[in-house]
Amino acid sequence: MGPRLSTDERLASVVGRSPSIATLCSHSSLQIFHGARIEGLGAIGLCVGEPPRFYDAFPLARPDRFLSVPRVRDLPTLESPLRDAGAVIVPHGSFVEYLGPEAFGALDVPVFGNRAVLGWESDREKEREWLEAAGVPMPNRYADASEVDGPVIVKYYGAKGGKGFFLAKNREALADFHPTGPYVIQEYVLGTRYYMHFFYSPISDGGYRVGTGSLELLGMDRRDEANIDELYKLGAQEELLRAGLRPTFVVTGNVPVILRESLLPKAFEVAARIVEKSIELFGGMVGPFCVEGIMTEELEYKVFEISTRIVAGTNLFVSGSPYSDLIAPDLSTGRRIAQELKHARAAGRLAEVLS
Ligand code: AMP
Description:
Layout: H1 7-11, E1 20-24, H2 29-38, E2 42-48, E3 65-69, H3 79-84, E4 87-89, H4 93-99, H5 101-105, H6 117-121, H7 124-133, E5 141-142, E6 152-156, E7 166-168, E8 183-187, E9 192-201, E10 208-210, E11 213-227, H8 231-234, H9 237-242, E12 249-256, H10 264-282, E13 287-295, E14 301-307, H11 333-346
Parallel strand pairs: 1-2, 1-4, 2-3
Antiparallel strand pairs: 5-8, 6-7, 6-8, 9-11, 9-13, 10-11, 11-12, 13-14
The chain binds adenosine monophosphate.
Protein backbone atom coordinates (compact mmCIF):
# COMPACT_ATOMS: atom_id res chain seq x y z
CA MET A 1 0.00 0.00 0.00
CA GLY A 2 1.48 3.35 -1.07
CA PRO A 3 0.23 6.90 -0.65
CA ARG A 4 -3.18 7.67 -2.20
CA LEU A 5 -2.26 11.14 -3.42
CA SER A 6 0.19 11.74 -6.25
CA THR A 7 3.45 13.48 -5.35
CA ASP A 8 2.19 16.70 -6.96
CA GLU A 9 -1.06 16.59 -5.00
CA ARG A 10 0.85 16.02 -1.78
CA LEU A 11 3.35 18.77 -2.43
CA ALA A 12 0.55 21.23 -3.27
CA SER A 13 0.05 21.64 0.51
CA VAL A 14 3.46 23.33 0.88
CA VAL A 15 3.76 25.26 -2.36
CA GLY A 16 3.53 29.04 -1.98
CA ARG A 17 3.73 29.08 1.80
CA SER A 18 6.37 28.87 4.50
CA PRO A 19 6.51 25.20 5.50
CA SER A 20 6.50 23.89 9.06
CA ILE A 21 8.69 21.01 10.10
CA ALA A 22 6.94 18.12 11.82
CA THR A 23 8.48 15.11 13.45
CA LEU A 24 7.81 12.54 16.13
CA CYS A 25 8.82 13.73 19.61
CA SER A 26 11.78 11.41 20.09
CA HIS A 27 15.28 10.53 18.81
CA SER A 28 16.67 13.80 17.33
CA SER A 29 13.52 15.92 17.57
CA LEU A 30 15.09 18.57 19.83
CA GLN A 31 17.75 19.25 17.22
CA ILE A 32 15.27 19.16 14.33
CA PHE A 33 12.88 21.65 16.03
CA HIS A 34 15.80 23.83 17.13
CA GLY A 35 17.06 23.93 13.53
CA ALA A 36 13.60 24.81 12.20
CA ARG A 37 13.24 27.62 14.72
CA ILE A 38 16.65 29.18 13.97
CA GLU A 39 15.75 29.16 10.28
CA GLY A 40 12.40 30.80 11.02
CA LEU A 41 10.22 27.81 10.11
CA GLY A 42 7.31 26.48 12.15
CA ALA A 43 7.82 23.33 14.24
CA ILE A 44 5.14 20.75 15.00
CA GLY A 45 5.70 18.00 17.56
CA LEU A 46 3.89 14.73 16.90
CA CYS A 47 3.36 12.79 20.09
CA VAL A 48 1.60 9.82 21.58
CA GLY A 49 -0.52 10.95 24.52
CA GLU A 50 0.58 14.00 26.47
CA PRO A 51 3.45 16.09 25.01
CA PRO A 52 6.70 14.97 26.67
CA ARG A 53 7.58 17.26 29.55
CA PHE A 54 11.27 17.46 28.69
CA TYR A 55 10.57 20.08 26.02
CA ASP A 56 9.79 22.54 28.85
CA ALA A 57 13.42 22.14 29.91
CA PHE A 58 14.73 23.12 26.46
CA PRO A 59 12.92 26.31 25.44
CA LEU A 60 14.93 26.88 22.25
CA ALA A 61 13.97 23.45 20.93
CA ARG A 62 10.30 23.39 21.91
CA PRO A 63 7.93 22.97 18.96
CA ASP A 64 5.31 25.73 18.43
CA ARG A 65 2.53 23.21 18.77
CA PHE A 66 1.85 19.55 19.37
CA LEU A 67 -0.46 17.14 17.57
CA SER A 68 -1.23 14.10 19.66
CA VAL A 69 -2.60 10.63 18.91
CA PRO A 70 -3.50 7.80 21.35
CA ARG A 71 -1.17 5.24 19.71
CA VAL A 72 1.71 5.40 17.23
CA ARG A 73 -0.31 3.54 14.63
CA ASP A 74 -2.88 6.38 14.71
CA LEU A 75 -0.32 8.87 13.33
CA PRO A 76 -1.77 8.58 9.78
CA THR A 77 -5.01 10.14 11.13
CA LEU A 78 -3.03 13.41 11.35
CA GLU A 79 -2.50 13.55 7.58
CA SER A 80 -5.09 16.26 6.88
CA PRO A 81 -4.25 18.54 9.82
CA LEU A 82 -0.59 18.25 8.81
CA ARG A 83 -1.30 19.14 5.20
CA ASP A 84 -3.51 22.02 6.35
CA ALA A 85 -0.59 23.29 8.44
CA GLY A 86 1.79 23.13 5.45
CA ALA A 87 3.87 20.53 7.27
CA VAL A 88 6.88 18.65 5.97
CA ILE A 89 7.62 15.47 7.88
CA VAL A 90 11.25 14.88 8.77
CA PRO A 91 11.90 11.17 9.25
CA HIS A 92 14.22 9.92 11.97
CA GLY A 93 15.12 6.40 13.05
CA SER A 94 12.48 6.07 15.76
CA PHE A 95 9.71 7.57 13.61
CA VAL A 96 10.23 5.02 10.82
CA GLU A 97 10.82 2.13 13.21
CA TYR A 98 7.78 2.77 15.45
CA LEU A 99 5.38 3.38 12.57
CA GLY A 100 6.97 0.76 10.29
CA PRO A 101 8.56 1.53 6.91
CA GLU A 102 5.40 0.64 4.99
CA ALA A 103 3.01 2.85 6.95
CA PHE A 104 5.61 5.62 6.96
CA GLY A 105 6.07 5.34 3.19
CA ALA A 106 2.29 5.56 2.70
CA LEU A 107 1.85 8.84 4.62
CA ASP A 108 -0.01 11.39 2.52
CA VAL A 109 2.04 14.29 3.82
CA PRO A 110 5.18 15.70 2.14
CA VAL A 111 8.26 13.94 3.54
CA PHE A 112 11.75 15.44 3.50
CA GLY A 113 13.95 13.23 1.29
CA ASN A 114 13.10 10.47 -1.15
CA ARG A 115 10.75 7.96 0.47
CA ALA A 116 11.78 5.37 -2.14
CA VAL A 117 14.92 4.87 -0.07
CA LEU A 118 12.89 3.15 2.66
CA GLY A 119 12.50 -0.05 0.66
CA TRP A 120 16.26 -0.23 0.10
CA GLU A 121 17.34 0.52 3.61
CA SER A 122 14.86 -1.46 5.71
CA ASP A 123 15.76 -4.75 4.01
CA ARG A 124 19.32 -5.94 4.80
CA GLU A 125 19.51 -7.90 1.52
CA LYS A 126 18.58 -4.92 -0.63
CA GLU A 127 20.84 -2.65 1.36
CA ARG A 128 23.74 -5.01 0.67
CA GLU A 129 22.83 -5.16 -3.02
CA TRP A 130 22.97 -1.35 -3.15
CA LEU A 131 26.27 -1.01 -1.27
CA GLU A 132 27.97 -3.85 -3.15
CA ALA A 133 26.83 -2.42 -6.48
CA ALA A 134 28.36 0.88 -5.34
CA GLY A 135 31.69 -0.91 -4.84
CA VAL A 136 31.77 -0.19 -1.11
CA PRO A 137 33.91 -2.61 0.96
CA MET A 138 31.70 -4.56 3.37
CA PRO A 139 32.30 -7.31 5.94
CA ASN A 140 32.39 -10.77 4.32
CA ARG A 141 29.27 -12.83 4.53
CA TYR A 142 29.30 -16.59 5.02
CA ALA A 143 26.61 -18.66 3.33
CA ASP A 144 27.17 -21.46 5.82
CA ALA A 145 28.77 -21.96 9.25
CA SER A 146 31.19 -24.52 7.74
CA GLU A 147 32.84 -21.70 5.72
CA VAL A 148 33.70 -19.61 8.76
CA ASP A 149 37.45 -18.97 9.04
CA GLY A 150 37.70 -16.27 11.70
CA PRO A 151 35.67 -14.29 14.23
CA VAL A 152 32.05 -13.71 13.21
CA ILE A 153 28.99 -11.75 14.24
CA VAL A 154 25.62 -13.40 13.70
CA LYS A 155 22.76 -10.98 13.06
CA TYR A 156 19.09 -11.75 13.07
CA TYR A 157 17.04 -10.11 10.35
CA GLY A 158 15.37 -6.97 11.58
CA ALA A 159 17.31 -7.01 14.86
CA LYS A 160 18.13 -3.33 14.70
CA GLY A 161 20.29 -2.04 17.48
CA GLY A 162 22.03 -5.35 17.68
CA LYS A 163 19.80 -7.08 20.22
CA GLY A 164 20.41 -10.78 20.19
CA PHE A 165 23.55 -10.61 18.04
CA PHE A 166 25.89 -13.53 18.65
CA LEU A 167 29.66 -13.25 18.52
CA ALA A 168 31.90 -16.24 17.92
CA LYS A 169 35.70 -16.20 17.97
CA ASN A 170 35.89 -19.06 15.46
CA ARG A 171 33.93 -21.82 13.76
CA GLU A 172 34.04 -24.05 16.85
CA ALA A 173 32.51 -21.35 19.06
CA LEU A 174 29.69 -21.00 16.55
CA ALA A 175 28.44 -24.42 17.66
CA ASP A 176 26.98 -22.64 20.71
CA PHE A 177 24.69 -20.61 18.45
CA HIS A 178 21.12 -21.89 18.44
CA PRO A 179 19.12 -19.76 16.01
CA THR A 180 15.61 -18.63 16.84
CA GLY A 181 14.90 -17.01 13.46
CA PRO A 182 16.45 -16.07 10.11
CA TYR A 183 20.01 -14.72 10.43
CA VAL A 184 23.19 -13.87 8.55
CA ILE A 185 26.75 -14.77 9.53
CA GLN A 186 29.13 -11.88 8.96
CA GLU A 187 32.86 -11.43 9.38
CA TYR A 188 33.52 -9.72 12.73
CA VAL A 189 35.64 -6.76 11.67
CA LEU A 190 38.36 -5.77 14.13
CA GLY A 191 39.03 -2.06 14.08
CA THR A 192 37.56 1.28 15.09
CA ARG A 193 33.93 2.15 14.46
CA TYR A 194 33.12 5.46 12.82
CA TYR A 195 29.58 6.67 12.17
CA MET A 196 29.90 9.42 9.57
CA HIS A 197 27.11 11.98 9.26
CA PHE A 198 26.76 13.11 5.65
CA PHE A 199 24.24 15.34 3.89
CA TYR A 200 23.51 15.16 0.20
CA SER A 201 21.90 18.16 -1.45
CA PRO A 202 20.79 17.60 -5.05
CA ILE A 203 20.21 21.35 -5.48
CA SER A 204 23.35 22.90 -4.02
CA ASP A 205 25.78 24.68 -6.37
CA GLY A 206 29.16 24.61 -4.64
CA GLY A 207 31.17 22.20 -2.57
CA TYR A 208 32.17 18.58 -3.18
CA ARG A 209 30.25 17.73 -6.35
CA VAL A 210 28.27 14.52 -6.58
CA GLY A 211 25.38 13.94 -9.01
CA THR A 212 23.61 17.27 -9.56
CA GLY A 213 24.57 18.65 -6.16
CA SER A 214 26.99 18.47 -3.28
CA LEU A 215 28.05 16.14 -0.53
CA GLU A 216 28.72 17.57 2.93
CA LEU A 217 30.26 15.97 6.01
CA LEU A 218 28.52 17.42 9.08
CA GLY A 219 29.91 15.32 11.91
CA MET A 220 31.05 11.96 13.19
CA ASP A 221 30.39 9.90 16.29
CA ARG A 222 30.87 6.54 17.86
CA ARG A 223 28.09 4.83 19.76
CA ASP A 224 28.16 3.74 23.33
CA GLU A 225 26.78 0.26 23.16
CA ALA A 226 25.68 -1.58 26.29
CA ASN A 227 26.94 -3.99 27.39
CA ILE A 228 29.47 -4.97 24.73
CA ASP A 229 31.51 -1.80 25.24
CA GLU A 230 32.27 -3.00 28.76
CA LEU A 231 33.47 -6.38 27.56
CA TYR A 232 37.13 -5.51 27.85
CA LYS A 233 36.65 -5.14 31.60
CA LEU A 234 35.62 -8.75 31.86
CA GLY A 235 38.17 -9.94 29.38
CA ALA A 236 36.07 -12.14 27.17
CA GLN A 237 32.58 -12.87 26.03
CA GLU A 238 32.66 -16.22 27.82
CA GLU A 239 32.97 -14.32 31.09
CA LEU A 240 29.73 -12.50 30.36
CA LEU A 241 28.03 -15.73 29.34
CA ARG A 242 29.27 -17.46 32.48
CA ALA A 243 27.68 -14.63 34.41
CA GLY A 244 24.44 -15.37 32.59
CA LEU A 245 24.65 -12.20 30.44
CA ARG A 246 24.22 -12.10 26.68
CA PRO A 247 26.34 -9.42 25.02
CA THR A 248 24.15 -6.78 23.38
CA PHE A 249 24.78 -3.69 21.28
CA VAL A 250 21.90 -1.59 22.60
CA VAL A 251 22.86 2.03 22.00
CA THR A 252 22.79 4.10 25.19
CA GLY A 253 24.59 7.24 24.00
CA ASN A 254 27.14 8.71 21.61
CA VAL A 255 30.62 10.17 21.76
CA PRO A 256 32.15 12.61 19.25
CA VAL A 257 35.06 11.42 17.14
CA ILE A 258 37.14 12.73 14.28
CA LEU A 259 38.96 10.82 11.60
CA ARG A 260 42.63 11.12 10.72
CA GLU A 261 42.64 13.88 8.13
CA SER A 262 44.43 11.62 5.66
CA LEU A 263 41.43 9.27 5.73
CA LEU A 264 38.91 11.93 4.72
CA PRO A 265 39.33 11.31 0.97
CA LYS A 266 38.36 7.68 1.58
CA ALA A 267 35.32 8.71 3.63
CA PHE A 268 34.09 11.04 0.88
CA GLU A 269 34.73 8.47 -1.86
CA VAL A 270 32.67 5.83 -0.07
CA ALA A 271 29.80 8.25 0.61
CA ALA A 272 29.89 9.63 -2.95
CA ARG A 273 29.65 6.14 -4.43
CA ILE A 274 26.67 5.34 -2.21
CA VAL A 275 24.90 8.53 -3.37
CA GLU A 276 25.73 7.96 -7.05
CA LYS A 277 24.40 4.41 -6.93
CA SER A 278 21.25 5.59 -5.14
CA ILE A 279 20.58 8.01 -8.00
CA GLU A 280 20.88 5.15 -10.46
CA LEU A 281 18.80 2.69 -8.44
CA PHE A 282 15.90 4.78 -7.15
CA GLY A 283 16.27 8.43 -8.08
CA GLY A 284 18.67 9.32 -5.29
CA MET A 285 18.88 9.67 -1.56
CA VAL A 286 18.36 13.25 -0.35
CA GLY A 287 19.40 14.96 2.87
CA PRO A 288 21.10 13.39 5.88
CA PHE A 289 22.48 9.87 5.90
CA CYS A 290 25.01 8.03 8.01
CA VAL A 291 27.70 5.65 6.81
CA GLU A 292 28.48 3.18 9.58
CA GLY A 293 31.64 1.18 9.37
CA ILE A 294 34.86 -0.03 10.87
CA MET A 295 38.34 1.23 10.02
CA THR A 296 40.76 -1.69 10.13
CA GLU A 297 44.46 -1.50 10.96
CA GLU A 298 45.11 -1.74 7.21
CA LEU A 299 43.06 1.49 7.01
CA GLU A 300 40.30 -0.15 5.06
CA TYR A 301 36.83 1.17 5.92
CA LYS A 302 34.31 -1.67 5.90
CA VAL A 303 30.69 -0.54 5.93
CA PHE A 304 28.27 -2.71 7.90
CA GLU A 305 25.23 -0.44 7.71
CA ILE A 306 23.85 2.74 6.26
CA SER A 307 21.10 4.86 7.82
CA THR A 308 19.35 6.97 5.24
CA ARG A 309 18.07 9.72 7.51
CA ILE A 310 19.18 11.84 10.47
CA VAL A 311 20.88 9.66 13.09
CA ALA A 312 20.87 10.32 16.82
CA GLY A 313 24.67 10.76 16.83
CA THR A 314 24.11 14.17 15.21
CA ASN A 315 22.60 15.32 18.53
CA LEU A 316 26.18 15.86 19.68
CA PHE A 317 26.53 18.74 17.26
CA VAL A 318 23.61 21.10 17.94
CA SER A 319 26.02 24.03 17.68
CA GLY A 320 28.26 22.52 15.01
CA SER A 321 31.02 19.95 14.75
CA PRO A 322 34.72 20.13 13.80
CA TYR A 323 33.52 19.41 10.23
CA SER A 324 30.38 21.54 9.93
CA ASP A 325 32.26 24.50 11.48
CA LEU A 326 34.28 24.54 8.27
CA ILE A 327 31.09 24.93 6.22
CA ALA A 328 29.16 27.48 8.32
CA PRO A 329 28.96 28.38 12.01
CA ASP A 330 26.37 26.73 14.26
CA LEU A 331 25.32 24.24 11.62
CA SER A 332 23.57 21.18 13.02
CA THR A 333 22.07 18.52 10.77
CA GLY A 334 18.61 19.65 11.96
CA ARG A 335 19.36 23.19 10.89
CA ARG A 336 20.79 21.99 7.58
CA ILE A 337 17.49 20.23 6.83
CA ALA A 338 15.56 23.47 7.47
CA GLN A 339 18.00 25.37 5.24
CA GLU A 340 17.61 22.86 2.42
CA LEU A 341 13.86 23.27 2.57
CA LYS A 342 14.19 27.04 2.40
CA HIS A 343 16.70 26.93 -0.47
CA ALA A 344 14.54 24.50 -2.44
CA ARG A 345 11.48 26.66 -1.92
CA ALA A 346 13.30 29.84 -3.00
CA ALA A 347 14.60 28.09 -6.11
CA GLY A 348 11.21 26.53 -6.96
CA ARG A 349 12.79 23.06 -6.58
CA LEU A 350 10.79 21.59 -3.68
CA ALA A 351 9.94 18.51 -5.75
CA GLU A 352 13.63 17.57 -5.73
CA VAL A 353 13.94 17.41 -1.95
CA LEU A 354 10.44 16.28 -0.93
CA SER A 355 8.46 13.16 -1.72
P1 AMP B 1 23.88 -3.00 13.11
O1 AMP B 1 22.54 -3.43 13.67
O2 AMP B 1 24.24 -3.71 11.83
O3 AMP B 1 23.95 -1.49 12.98
O4 AMP B 1 25.00 -3.38 14.17
C1 AMP B 1 24.94 -2.99 15.51
C2 AMP B 1 26.34 -2.90 16.10
O5 AMP B 1 27.03 -4.15 15.94
C3 AMP B 1 27.23 -1.88 15.40
O6 AMP B 1 27.04 -0.58 15.88
C4 AMP B 1 28.64 -2.42 15.68
O7 AMP B 1 29.09 -2.07 16.97
C5 AMP B 1 28.42 -3.92 15.68
N1 AMP B 1 28.73 -4.54 14.37
C6 AMP B 1 27.87 -4.70 13.34
N2 AMP B 1 28.45 -5.36 12.31
C7 AMP B 1 29.71 -5.64 12.70
C8 AMP B 1 30.82 -6.33 12.08
N3 AMP B 1 30.71 -6.87 10.87
N4 AMP B 1 31.98 -6.43 12.78
C9 AMP B 1 32.07 -5.90 14.03
N5 AMP B 1 31.08 -5.27 14.67
C10 AMP B 1 29.90 -5.13 14.02
